[in-house]
Design a protein that fits this description.
Oligomer: heterodimer
Structural class of chain B: mainly alpha
Number of helices of chain A: 14
Number of domains of chain A: 1
Shape of chain A: globular
Strand order of the largest sheet of chain A: 1-2
Distance between the termini of chain B: 32 Å
Order of helices and strands of chain B: HHHHHHHHHHHHHH
CATH architecture of the largest domain in chain B: Orthogonal Bundle
CATH class of the largest domain in chain B: Mainly Alpha
Helix content of chain A: over 70%
CATH architecture of chain A: Orthogonal Bundle
CATH class of chain A: Mainly Alpha
CATH topology of the largest domain in chain B: MetI-like fold
Largest interface: A-B, 118 and 109 residues
Strand content of chain A: under 5%
Radius of gyration of chain A: 25 Å
CATH topology of chain A: MetI-like fold
Largest sheet of chain A: 2 strands, antiparallel
CATH superfamily of the largest domain in chain B: MetI-like
Shape of chain B: globular
Radius of gyration of chain B: 24 Å
Number of domains of chain B: 2
Number of strands of chain A: 2
Chain lengths: ~300, ~290
């Protein structure tokens, strides 16, 4: 038998070798298409480089960053991203939690409800934006429904024109597309809570609100944390909605999120170095958020005992 | 806005009053309307002439089926029939990326889950770290690489940055960690080669994870706008999201035809969703199971 003449050490070495065989192709790929570009983006953020000019990039130290910190349009982008992310994330967390609690409280139609809420998953974000552009048209159903509910016939709410409404519009589109996804995450979280805990509370005479506030909600903290960070990071990556809206003629200022600004700085203005600096700042913000998640989740391990 | 009514006291459990039940049902239905209305709007508007789409109030039910919208969507405003070609491009790109992601992610996941070697942890951590990096942070260097090797405006250029992703590796590794070692050892004793084991044993037995990964990958590529926006120059190489942005910004675009374009673009994912919905949700469930 071959096993007999390969010593134990030899077999282990052989297995280790096969491990590398399976891992290496992806590792090389990640090196070329992730690590090298990250390093290059960091490097380029210290250089002045024009996309169209053939001149060698010129080292300018921190000047790209200094320029950004002194530029109103950078702060505007940061503000636009913060408003979009904050607004969408708050809506997503609160509403998807409430929906999940409501859905799991029902005896029937749970699956159908979940599927209905999740159904915007079938449209891409570009398609979603093109649908909502028509809904937000002055003659569209956005105005029609809001006027019906608020009893204000004939008012145009300027969804795509006024700064506040434009921001709200992009938030509504994003919220619409992802609320079902986060609802399902919450439902998974709720269904992992032992029924015995809730039964015990019921026998002790707790009201529904008490049961939610003192049992369900605290035990869902890891899920809430996960939903918060995932949704925040996802919102920071948004691009298509804002791009489509500005293409359709909406003013860029209020929705000039960082990603849109990176794109425009690099492709419209050809300023590669500055765009790289901007994208590094975006990366740092996201790393910071992930770090918070990591830190908090370490101290937040729930035990059901 | 219907969803703002959702801030009621949640009554999760049995024994609540009739009123509370009714309110919960009402909220759930109101939100369902808000969620479904835009999809229904897309579908019904795609069958209406433009003057009906923009009629106040919106009619919701097409008076007659205005199939011309679909014809115009395919034909294009300029009659160039570029949309079918763009659909084909999207299919080629998304399918190739899906295949390569599934193959590379399961290979890597298998290597990380079932083999002991020095540096395994480091490799895993390095790959996972790339999950934190937003595509927008590396797209400019990627753009420079791809244009440097002359791949702009080609399929290879569209595909290259997405051959595999960290999430896929993570998903496959987590799934394969639970794969019984005895089966692998039994196969080895039977004299199967390592590649054979991977191909004949691992791949066929990882179907749920592979389906989830394939669907998530295909869907995210179907939706990819920013990379094609950078890399594609000619109309022939455009993908669906680019065609939609162009069609939407053309001056005389008919609203009904616009929704027909949107409906056609959503068809493949809608079909996947109808038949394989549980794998769509699979990704979300996996996230929840990870628990922070």
């Amino acid at each position: 038998m071959w096993k007999r003449w390969i010593s134990k050490g030899g077999l282990e070495r052989r297995r280790a070798l096969w491990g590398w065989v399976f891992v290496t192709p992806a590792l090389i790929y990640f090196g070329l298409f992730s690590f090298y570009p990250i390093a290059n983006a960091i490097r380029m953020s210290f250089f002045k480089k024009n996309l169209l000019s053939l001149a060698a990039p010129r080292f300018i130290g921190l000047k790209n960053y200094l320029y950004l910190f002194n530029s109103p349009s950078f702060w505007n982008s940061l503000k636009a991203s913060a408003i979009f992310t904050g607004g969408t994330f708050a809506l997503l967390v609160v509403v998807s939690l409430v929906l999940a609690v409501f859905i799991t409280s029902r005896k029937r139609f749970q699956k159908i409800m979940q599927m209905a809420y999740f159904s915007p998953a079938i449209v891409s974000s570009v398609v979603a934006a093109s649908i909502w552009l028509l809904i937000f048209d002055p003659r569209g159903i956005g105005n029609q429904w809001v006027n019906l509910i608020m009893n204000t016939p004939g008012v145009d709410h300027r969804w795509l024109a006024s700064a506040v409404m434009l921001r709200l519009s992009t938030i509504l589109v994003y919220f619409w597309k992802y609320v079902g996804y986060f609802t399902i995450i919450y439902i998974a979280g709720i269904s992992s809570i032992p029924v015995t805990l809730i039964e015990a509370a019921r026998i002790d005479g707790a009201t529904a609100w008490q049961k939610f506030w003192h049992i369900t909600f605290p035990l869902l903290r890891p899920t809430t944390l996960l939903v918060s960070v995932v949704s925040m990071i996802q919102c920071l990556r948004t691009f298509s909605t804002q791009y489509m809206f500005t293409q359709a003629g909406a003013p860029r200022g209020p929705i000039d999120v960082i990603t849109l600004s990176v794109y425009n700085t690099a492709i419209r203005d050809y300023r590669i170095g500055r765009a790289s600096a901007l994208s590094i700042i975006l990366l740092l913000i996201m790393l910071f958020l992930s770090w918070i998640q990591f830190r908090v989740s370490k101290s937040e391990d729930v035990s059901y005992v | 806005m219907p969803q703002s009514r959702a801030h009621r006291i949640p009554k999760r459990f049995r024994g609540r009053s009739r009123l509370a039940t009714a309110l919960i049902t009402l909220v759930l239905i109101a939100v369902a309307l808000y969620i479904l209305a835009p999809l229904i709007f897309m579908f019904t508007a795609s069958l209406m002439p433009a003057k009906d789409v923009m009629k106040m109030p919106y009619p919701w039910i097409p008076r007659s089926f205005h199939w011309q919208n679909y014809w115009q969507a395919i034909r294009g405003n300029d009659g160039s029939f570029i949309f079918p070609r763009n659909i084909l491009n999207s299919l080629i790109v998304a399918t190739s990326i899906t295949l390569s992601t599934v193959l590379l992610a399961s290979m890597t996941g298998y290597g990380l889950a079932k083999f002991e070697f020095k540096g395994r942890k480091l490799v895993f951590m390095m790959i996972i770290a790339t999950m934190m990096v937003p595509f927008q942070a590396i797209m400019i260097p990627l753009y420079l690489i791809v244009t440097d090797i002359g791949l702009q405006d080609t399929y290879l250029g569209l595909i290259a940055p997405f051959l595999v992703n960290a999430f896929g590796v993570f998903l496959m590794r987590q799934y394969l960690l639970t794969f019984p070692d005895e089966m692998l050892d039994a196969a080895r004793i039977d004299g199967a080669g390592e590649f054979q084991i991977f191909w004949r044993l691992i791949i066929p037995n990882s179907w749920p994870a592979i389906a989830t990964l394939a669907i998530l990958t295909f869907r995210s590529q179907w939706d990819n706008l920013i990379w094609p926006l950078l890399i594609v120059q000619s109309e022939e190489m455009k993908t669906i999201p680019l065609y939609i942005t162009r069609f939407a910004s053309e001056k005389y675009t008919d609203e009904g035809a616009m929704m027909a374009v949107a409906a056609i673009a959503s068809l493949p994912i809608a079909i996947l969703f109808i038949f394989l919905a549980k794998y769509f949700v699979g990704g979300a469930k996996l996230f929840a199971a990870r628990k922070g």
